[in-house]
Every structure is written in C-alpha cells, then in structure tokens.
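Progress narrative, work stream C.
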Amino acid sequence: MNQKGKEKIPQAGQTNATDKQQLKLALTVSSNAMLGASAMVAGIALLSGMDAVVKILVTQDVSVLHILAIRSWLIVIVMLLFYVIRGQTNQLKPVRKLHQAVRSVFGIVAPLLFFLGLKYLPLTDSVVIFFTSTLAVTFLSAIILGERVGVHRWAAVGIGYIGVLIAMRPSGEGQLIGYALAFGGSLAYAYLFLSGRYLSQTETVSSLVFYYNLGVGVTSSLWIVFIARELLFVPSASVLTGITAIAVLAVCGHYLMTLAFAKAEVSLIAPLEYTAIIWAIGLDYLLWQIAPLPTTLLGAAIIIGSGYYVMHREQLKKSEIATTPSG
C-alpha cells in the first residue's frame, strides 16, 4: 500500500490533550473578557463618583484650580512612590520629552472646562455632551493626523452633533455657559486621546498618565500663584477630604479602565463607557433629585448610537487592513 496515501490519525491521548488545550484557551479568553468588562464598568462607576464629588465642591464655590492642583499632585506622588518601591521608575521615563511636555501643559484644558461646566449643568447633561469627544476624535484625526475618514463615519458624526443640539435645548444663559464649557472640554479630551494614541508608539501608559498629571499640577499651581483671589483660598478639612477622594477615585478608576483594555477586546470594552450616563442619571436623582429631560435622553441615544457606529466602522476598517495581502 502507498505510504503517501496514508493519513496520520491522531491517537486518543493526543486528541484529548488538544481538546483540553482548546477548552483551556477558550475559558481563559472568556474569563479575561468577563474580567475586562467588569473592570470597565467598575472603573466608569468610580469616575462617575469622582464627577459627582467635583460637582458638590464646585457648587459650593470651591476653586476648580485648587481641585485640579491637589488632585494632580496627589496622583503624581502616589505614582512616584509606587514605581520607586517596585524599582520600575524606568516606566516613567519619557522618550519624546517635548511632545510629552506640550501634551501635559495643554492637558489641563479638558478637566478644567468639564469641572467648570458641572457648576451650571446637571451631571447627566454634562456627561452626555462630553461624550461627543468620540465624534470629535473622528474629525480631528482627519485634520491633525491626516487619517482617511469615509462617508459613513462623517455621516455618523453629523448625526451625532444633531443629537447634541437636541440634548442641549438650553433654557437660560447659565445653561448656555455650562453647555459651552462641557462641549469645549470634549474637544480638549479628543486632543488628549489623539495625542496619547500618537505618543503611545514610543511612550508607556504609565509615563503618559504621570506626565499628564504632573503638567496639570504644575500649570494649575502656577495659575493659583498668579491669581491673587486664589491665593486667599484655604481649603477646609471637608474640602481637602473631598479633593483627596477625587484623587483616589481618579487613580482607581483609570487603573481599572487600563486593566479592562489590557484584558479584553476594544470592541467589547469601549461601548461600556456609555454606562457613565446611567451612573450620572442615578447620582443626579440620588444627590440632587434631578431627573433627566426627555430631550436629554433622546439626544443621548443619538450621540451613543453615532459614537458606537463610528467605533464599528473603525473596527471594520482595521479588519480590512489586517486581511489585505501585502505586496
């Protein structure tokens, strides 16, 4: 009989071992997906709690600059101690120092505008408008990075901003200021996201987080020094406790989000960011007895749908590039 015609039949022991390996791999992937999803939801919950504490403080006329300065310095100190104790300070070493410095200095704009907006708007409205950063990333990536954006994503961006107009429907001058601040914050956050994605080619996540907070701490501290009224402000024990809570919630929330993206696929994790709206609605009702207007919910649905479609099209584009044969 021709030996070439024979097929190698795996032994029973080999088959069982292969099946066990495949089962173990599937369970690992499933476990990581569950861990990633849980970490994302928990991280968003903590950051939503942070926003609520900020709103409590700013509505009591606590200086936003002091909130940013104390929060950022606490984060910088905690991160520095953590990496020194672990002997991993090399993780904080920047490669492109000038780019990191520029990003750090301008990084204050996003939280500054968003926190100021919380003084004028319900938490839900602020979060809904801030989510337009997903849409802003799309057109800024085309303008700044020169990325090609198809007609589907441009249409989704346009529809998303229609959702913004529906969600806003401002009824007074104070609200107009709040919406403008929240919208400006979303644009600044889009810049932070894009610059982070660009720098991540050479920089570690730890260095990006560290120098961002260092920049915010230095910049806000300098603003405080050169504004006489801010110099007269001395935080009380309760305010200092609140700012410390903000720093703890920020560190833990961002750590959990980083863990989430490390453990699970972006396509699974990214949409869970929108659970922030659910937390915002609950916190608004629990702390301030404010229920969202129907227009806010409708606008939120449109913004979320547009943002999700933009992410979906981006994933399709990446898949097409990955499967296109080279040469």
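Work stream C, second folded protein:
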Amino acid sequence: MEIAGKIALVTGAGRRLGRSIALSLADCGANVVLHYRDSREQAMMVRKDIFARGSHSWLSGHDFTEVETTETWFTDIEKKTGGIDILINSASEYLRTGYESMSAKDLGRSMSIHVQSPLIMIRAMNRRLKQVKQRGAVVNILDSRIADPQHAAYHFGKTALHALTLDLAVEMAQTLRINAVAPGNILPPNSEENFERADPPLNSSTASTAARAAGASNPLGIRGDSKDISDAIIYLLRADFVTGVVLHVDGGLHLGSYACRKLI
C-alpha cells in the first residue's frame, strides 16, 4: 500500500503510542483522523503538528464504551473524509483489576473498547470498500505479555483482539489486510514519558527505575521506544503480501521469562 494520500483513522491518537503513530503516518503523507476520548487538548496539538507536516487532519471524540453508537460515529467520519483506507486500533484502557476483584462491568468495559468497537469499525470499513472495489489495511495494537493477572480485564480484551485479528484476516482478505503489533515495555503506564535508547545507559545511575525495568524485561536487554512501534506499523501497511501477522516489537519478551533470567 502506498500510504501517501490515504485517509487513516488512529484511535487514542492524542497521547502516548497513538500520538506517535499518527505523526508517523503524517510523515508518510497520510491524512489522519485523530480519535480521542478525554484528551481533546492533546489531540489538538497533534493535529497542529500534522498540519505542519503538510498533511490534513480531523479531530473526532468518541467513548468506545458506548458501543451502541460506535457504528454511527464511524459512518459519520467516513462521510466527512470520503472514506477510511487505514484503521489503527490503538485506543486502550489499562484498568488494574485482578481475577478476584474483576467485575462484569470491568470486563464488559474492556471488551467494548478492545473488541466490540474495533469489530464494528472493521465491518463498516469492509462493507464500504467492497462497494467501491478498493482495498484497505487495519493494524490492531495488542500487548506482548503472555499473561497479566494484575490487569485481568485488559488482558482479556487484548487476547480477544488477537483472536479477532486472525479470524478477520481470513474472512475479509479480499478487501482488507488485517495485522497486529504487540508492543513490549515501551512507555510506563499512565505516563507520557518516552524512552530513548541512547541516553542514559541502562547501567547508569541516572537511568530511571522504569527504564531499567523495561530493559531488564527482555532478552535483548535494551529498552524500546514509540518509534519502534510506528516503524512496525508502517512496514505492515506497506507489505502488500502480509496479512494475519502479529508482529512482536518487544526485544524478545514474548519468548518467555526463561530467556530473561540472566538480565533480571
């Protein structure tokens, strides 16, 4: 896929990884719809940065827990922009709930954000592209951790999104290429901090505790940054012969804890 000139929707685009992804798409010449829930001011700043790169951008707020309105919201965006070619499902909620404390409401909220709303958007996108005989691409953002019992509802949602990625990659292959990126420890939870690999070194006394933990969590023993995730997404969008792939961008974290014993 040639990204330049395409219309991309990035969910959760006001902050953190979503922001980085949106700017990377603009750098490639895409025009970007910036979805936000509560981060309107941050999304406005991202929009300003996209305009400075010579691309167009739109802002659109929506709460994905209100899943019954998601299709109408998405259809309105397609009418406003002329149609979405690229969908990046980055919006997420990292609710701290263990299996003992997780409520049905917690699980339902996670499923609305991580599974139901992405499915609704992908289906609507697929229907329109079929009608106009065009192709598009979807990248879902997962999580590289094999298990996360301290964030059970979140983990259920991301696991279900993984399954959805594989199923829809087959079912909608004539219209959409559907892939996923599974990041490792890139950003500390609820933080805007980004890690730069070069400075300071992990063994430096000035390296943050979060940065040390990120490096020690994977076999490579280095910390990733948001550009690693954006680069992986750009690759998947451009790779026309790739679908149904989950690309782990995690320094080898997905290989299991046994691979990290010498680093911890």
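Helices lie at 16-27, 40-52, 70-81, 104-132, 152-171, 209-216, 226-238. No further action is required on this item.
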